[in-house]
Amino acid sequence: MKAVALTRYLPIEHPEALLDVELPTLQPTGHDLLVKIEAIAVNPVDTKVRAPKAGIEAMPRVLGWDAAGTVVAAGPEVTLFRPGDAVYYAGDITRPGSNAEFQLVDERIVGHKPATLNFADAAALPLTAITAWEALFDRLGVRRSGEDAGKTVLIIGGAGGVGSIGIQLARLAGLSVIATASRPASREWVTRLGASATVDHRSDLAAQLAALGHATVDYVLCFNDTDQHFTAMAQVIAPQGKVCSIVENATPLDLNLFKSKSATFVWEFMFTRSMYRTTDMIEQHRLLDEVAALVDAGTLQSTVGAHFGVINAANLRRAHAALEAGDTIGKIVLAGF
Which protein family is named in the record (predicted)? Predict the structure, then answer.
């Protein structure tokens, strides 16, 4: 099968940072589905895994953690899907990724593709939808049924992939959303998705929120640079409020900043369930099916920002470079081989 892979961890400008390769197609066992990949999306995690470091892979390593495609075969323990089903998923960071013609993936982290979306638009959703959903509803404990309606959430990194879904989910739960955005295009994007106000993450967040009439906020979702925003998050979070970040820190974090407020700081990592084979892995299957239902009902929209063409090494190098530049809006997708 065709695939895009790496053997060395190189700067994205290097022509061998990502390579077109041929690999054998595997057979599904257990709970695995064999999926024919129709479209993929690219995420910051792809660039972080590929980032320059020592080491050479003995076998080409396939990256990619967002896909939509068609089930072509199923393992003997599969009960949720059958060949011919259209699916979408974010996969498992401990296994070969989706930048290939075929991929093996555990059915318990796979959802039925939204019927109203094509494969490219569907591929933009899984990783960001799972991350935003788990951060908002599982980690922060926001109740989907509306009991927290009227409370305020600050979303740092509002125009990115996760922020674009997080804004929509927060609005569906009845929260008032303030999103960070630093450019006219990103401000227009987050406002269209449902943010009631915007602030510039490159300036003083506390002062900007105060100018909007918010001395504090009930929740903070940090989808961009935990180190940069940590002190500001401690300033603006309400007493007994909750903060969730998805971005690993590079320097030690002073949790004492949250102590006087009895505030919660919690991490979200969407690969936790698949990495540790938790007993509730199937919750990601259920989550993705619920997201598909919201999309098909017209209450949640895909967040494609750019389509980079067919799936090959040259186009994926372009996508990685765009993400590393840090000015993308929404998701980058590719489709077909």
Answer: Belongs to the zinc-containing alcohol dehydrogenase family. Quinone oxidoreductase subfamily.
